[in-house]
Amino acid sequence: MITRKKLIAGNWKMNKTSADAVALVGDLVATIGRQTDVDVVVCPPFTSIETVAKALDGSTLKLGAQNMHPEASGAFTGEVSAPMLRALFATHVILGHSERRAYFAETDAFINKKVLAALKNQLKPILCVGETLAERESGATLKVVQTQLEAGLDGVSKELAPSVVIAYEPVWAIGTGKVATTEQAQEVHAFIRGLLTKLFTEPVAQKVRILYGGSMKPSNAPELLAQKDIDGGLIGGAALEARSFVDLVTAAAAVK
Ligand code: PEP
User: Taking 80 as the threshold, does the pLDDT of residue 256 lie above it?
Assistant: First the structure.
């Protein structure tokens, strides 16, 4: 049986100046900087990527970005590319977050281009999928997740698929304090694992980490992280303070 190492990723969104970012990362490095039982990724805004990279140097914590453009360079004002992120030692990039889809009109096809560009540049994409409340209430959850997943992973090879991380983030649970029940989350995670099996074969699907995201905090994490197909968390609000983020990493490390 394959055991997947848990992964806890902090999505800071549009929060923290460089100085605030360095202070937070300093606390994380001091407390969990030698963590090896769990993969830990912090995703600051672009403005703090370089200073955070320096602050993380020598620790086991990894650096991620919250978005990127699919092209390597060119006339794309305001955008940042995969090679630029790699040059700053980023290892991960969040793609297709529901806020990008909703506020910046990102389509599955555009997100797919980013996934392929990330992989081409040795960045691990954290591909976000998830349904809105209206979609859940109309019984469309699995269909929505399937469409986003299949389109997002179009053209990804079996060899590179284990480098992809999937984040199941029900939109109605993001930043709302309404967490999915363990049953709701595990049902979708198992469904995603099944889709990955169809796309890439069973042994490959068993290697892919599927994170849960949506109001995960130290109080609800142990139960969610104990589910068979929940391999970690993508954390928004609770990643903004060292205490709660460290507690989440500790909760992930405690799952047997
Ligand atoms: C997110 O935005 O990815 C997220 C999960 O946010 P929160 O934890 O605040 O719900």
Answer: no
